[in-house]
Description:
Layout: H1 16-43, H2 48-57, H3 70-82, H4 86-112, H5 114-126, H6 128-131, H7 139-157, H8 170-187, H9 194-206, H10 208-212, H11 217-226, H12 231-239, H13 243-251, H14 260-273, H15 275-293, H16 297-316, H17 334-337, H18 341-349, H19 355-387, H20 397-400, H21 408-428, E1 435-438, H22 441-451, E2 463-464, H23 468-472, H24 476-481, H25 486-493, E3 497-503, H26 512-520, E4 525-535, E5 542-550, E6 576-580, E7 592-600, E8 605-612, E9 615-620, E10 624-625, H27 627-630, E11 642-650, E12 658-668, E13 673-675, E14 679-683
Parallel strand pairs: 1-2, 1-3
Antiparallel strand pairs: 3-5, 4-5, 6-7, 7-11, 8-9, 8-12, 10-11, 12-13, 12-14
Helix pairs in contact: 1-4, 1-19, 2-3, 2-22, 3-4, 4-5, 4-7, 7-8, 8-11, 9-16, 14-15, 15-16, 18-19, 21-22
Amino acid sequence: MTSTTPPAPETFRIEPRTARRLVWAFWLVAAALLILKIAIIAHLDLFWDEAYYWQASERLAIGYADKPFMNALLIHIGTTLFGDTFFGVRIIHMLFGLLLPVGIYWLGQPVVGHRDALYAAAFSLIVPIGALQGLQAQPEIVLAVYAIFALGAFERASRTEGAGQAGETGGQTKWWLLFGLLCALGAATHYRFAPFILGIFLYMILTRVGRAQWGRHGFWLAVLVGLPGLVPLIWFNLETDFASFRYQVVDRNPWTFHWIALVRYWVGQILALNPLLFAAYVAATVLAIRRWREGNDRAALLAAVTIAYIGGYYLLTPWTDQKHFAVHWPGIGYAPLTLFLPEILRDVWRMGRTVWQKRIARGLVIGVPLSGAAMSLGVLIFLAANIWPQALMPAVLDRVSRLPVQGWSALARETESHFSALEAEAKKRGLPAPVLVAPDYIVGSELSFGLARRPGAPRVSAYTLDHPNNVRDGLEFQYEIWKLDQASLVALHAGKPALVLYEVPHYEFHEPLRFVKRRLLCNVIRDAEPVGEWVSRGGRRHYQFFRGFVRDAADPSSATNSLPPAPIDCGVMPAAYIAQPKQGGTVRGQIASVFGWVREAESKVVSVAAVLDGKVIGEIAPAGDVISSLRHMTPYAEPDVTYQSFGLPWNPSIHSPGRHVMHLAIRYADGTERITEKRVFYIPGF
């Protein structure tokens, strides 16, 4: 009987010619992504939190209301070198992004070997975990780089040779020192460096080799070096009655259980990575834990840090602030897992006994990095389309691109035009230099950045009115420190002319505070008169410009916590509330209606005309007083003002698809007319 030798298992082999093509394709993709990233960071409007960080970088301190000093310091270095530009704000973070694959290779080389570490580093260049890092001046990429290099230093310092011994070799001591230094830098960057420390402690509690580190002199030397990183946090909190700590840990979090967050967490992670890439990382997690259980101490170290980040945030999510949680916070936890992806892909390549199984397996091997690269490229193109809309997605952009980055530069230019005119008028009339006032810190920081670049003109810092957004994000205290808050505006600039931006309050029942704050504007600014408006192209942002004078602090009308006593209509409330069409919304079908409420002042409203793209599409007399139905909606109801409802039927289908602009023309009995603010909306059909 003849015995046969079973065939050897198939190995992961690629023909040299194919390998060279794949290498060239990879470098071309990586180079294209890098070039596109550089173009984007140099031209993309700052996100609102980047603008706030820029403000902090202009006022360097040991700490701020929401985090320590490191992120502000890095932006300060960039703007010192390259000026107050988008590129200057982001360049240092871009360089940190380039360090991430270097850190992954350095961490992985002694753990998984040179080849797999190189593959993992290359992989991180094209998938979202690395390819999209450094586009924003956010602390996450800084934390990621510090964590990866600190993990690499800890891995070298804690190797089994010498473990459990009090003495250290010179080589090990330098890694302990590096580990402590990087931990200090991470702690000085953000509270969200804590999961990394937690991961190290998990390893040092749950593994034999980890527990041995407690008895090593080098570890305690690292602790001594790392502790100064906590000084900025402790110092600032002691000076401010723990304002930063209370916001981050207590005030912003309800600490009540929301079970839906457990589902939302994983949905967010899947969408942030894409399902195929997420599945690969799940397999990498399983492999790391399996190696841990088999006694691989290095896999245990990597898995402990991953569990601390991804698992730690998962356990905390149901109890914490649902509005502020960001899907990218656990992202650092995926970086160590990247080291196991090459082995996962090799195992998948070898799967399958039939031709079709092999094709599916090899399709997955190609699909995982390809899907990651495609997602990264798609996000970059989407961001680029916000910069160059006519060149990229000219028709689709208005319908799908409503990112917060749209329009800040345009708003700054419009603001500069009005502010320069007010400066010229104040100088001509012998008045003090005017001040700029924004509704909240988001608009204030963006305008401060935009107007800081005025050639040959003094810097202008926008003052921030009391607004729910300031409280929501825990920054009202920071603007008090900088003396850019509402109280400082009244105390320091009473009687000065002011240019004020404020949101146009559309009539939406779930946003009563927008109406309250609109009316409270009269407590700060007297003699307010509208001088213009600005609507972002997508209709998402809508602001009106007012000119007036800052009230004196002794003026009884300048109280900031009550509605203005009189007059009710002090020049800031809109002439009408338009319920439909919604700002930035979509109108479908052949039967639609323009409806809302008109405010009557001294004279009765005779008619309301809807004007679409400069042409009247209908005119109607208001139907009747609706104040009785609004009385219970305090603070919507204004006791001395009559509301008249109106409704204009029209056929949207006769108009061309795309973006449209509407306003109302209100005619009063005394012969006067008033034009309302613009309303941007869309008609589908392309």
